[in-house]
Please model this.
Amino acid sequence: MRHVHRTRRTCAHSIRAHRGHRARRAALTALLTAAAAVLTALTPQTAVSAAVPAPRLGECAAGELCLWERADFKGPRRTHELADTDIESCVPLPRGASVASLANRTGRPVTAYQSAECAETGEFDTYPSGSWAPRTDYRVRAVKIWES
Model:
């Protein structure tokens, strides 16, 4: 008899546990349904306005390569134009100078180098025309404007 009684108690416990599990599952389903309804109600306009605003672009005219000393297009700006820059030649920045953000509006690809000698042993990246880089991955010390 005792054995049967334990089985009943175990069964009763299992039934209560199963009911609790079903109640938790129903509550979770209701919560997820409510969250989905809220997300569906958000329009793309609302979602965009809640996002962090993009950094403001710096001033850089068409035909220019613009370089800023600090990230987010801040600090002193240097500009290079095709008229006064040798194409496919390394253009080092003045000694001790470096930049942390850039805009390429030259109409040609530009490579930014960590090395002041345009050495490919350091970091370098090529930015297509129309690129705006609020934060470069390294301090840029030289650039090269390429033929299209």
Remarks:
- Residues 1-19, 45-49 have pLDDT under 50 and may be disordered.
- The beta strands are 64-70, 74-81, 91-92, 101-104, 110-113, 124-127, 131-133, 142-145.
